[in-house]
Amino acid sequence: MSLLLSILAFAFWIVDPTSVIPRPVLLIVAVLGFVTASYVVWRKEAMRVYELTNPKIEIIFENGIGPYLEEVNRGEGKFSWLFRVGVRNTTHRTIEDVILALVHTEPQICSYLPVPMRAMHFELGPLHPFKDRLFDIVYKLSEVETIQVCHTVDHAPLNIRSGEYVFSLAASGQDVHAERQFRVWVNGERLMVAPMQSP
């Protein structure tokens, strides 16, 4: 719009010297329009370059909505619950080597944290611009009192007693890092997860 205004003002200044609008005013409008349009183009490019050189990821979660919650009725009154969180690339740059790890729990559940979490469908590789990758966090069967932590450390299954926990998760990749905490607990026999704070 600024560029169009500049062009129109400049055209009037050249084509119609008898215009009721003084020629200096038309010239000022043309110059201001050109400067404004140039600034808008420069700012847009500067923001794009900033995003490319300063990528950002977020840990996302929508409570009670698939695929963040996968609830399966297994028949005969038996259920299973699997909770996931997502890692989102919020910029125009592809981010390499994106992982999610459980870095801390309260109370402590084991002595070998951090542990990498299992990507949904074992999806690995770069995370492309404005795309999400889902990671499995915790799983529970209704007839079992323990909660399974869905990490990927070989030969080290991690099953914890039903109770209330705070999980601190960290997403990382090339030049990026994000953290978020989640409350994990059991209500009756049902597994529950809720974010402690906004990303």
Distance between the termini: 36 Å
Domain tally: 2
CATH architecture label name of the largest domain: Sandwich
CATH class of the largest domain reads Mainly Beta
Category from helices, strands and their pairing: alpha+beta
The total of beta strands comes to 12
- Taken from the alpha-carbon principal axes, the silhouette is elongated
3D architecture notes:
The protein is of the alpha+beta class and 199 residues long. It folds into two domains: 2-53, no CATH class; 57-195, Immunoglobulin-like (Sandwich), CATH 2.60.40. It has two helices and twelve strands; from the N terminus they run ααββββββββββββ. The strands form two sheets. Strands 1, 2, 3, 6, 7, 8 and 9 form a seven-stranded antiparallel sheet that branches. A hairpin with a 2-residue loop joins strand 11 (176-187) and strand 12. The longest helix has 31 residues, at 23-53. It starts with a helix and ends with a strand. The relative contact order is 0.16. The mean pLDDT is 82.
Feature tags:
199 residues, Immunoglobulin-like, 2 domains, seven-stranded antiparallel beta sheet, five-stranded antiparallel beta sheet, 12 strands, elongated
Summarize the structure.
The chain has 199 residues and is of the alpha+beta class. It has helices spanning 2-15, 23-53; strands at 57-60, 69-75, 78-89, 99-106, 115-116, 118-119, 132-141, 146-149, 159-161, 164-173, 176-187, 190-195.
Topology record:
Elements: H1 2-15, H2 23-53, E1 57-60, E2 69-75, E3 78-89, E4 99-106, E5 115-116, E6 118-119, E7 132-141, E8 146-149, E9 159-161, E10 164-173, E11 176-187, E12 190-195
Antiparallel strand pairs: 1-3, 2-3, 3-7, 4-5, 4-10, 6-7, 7-8, 8-9, 10-11, 11-12
Helix pairs in contact: 1-2
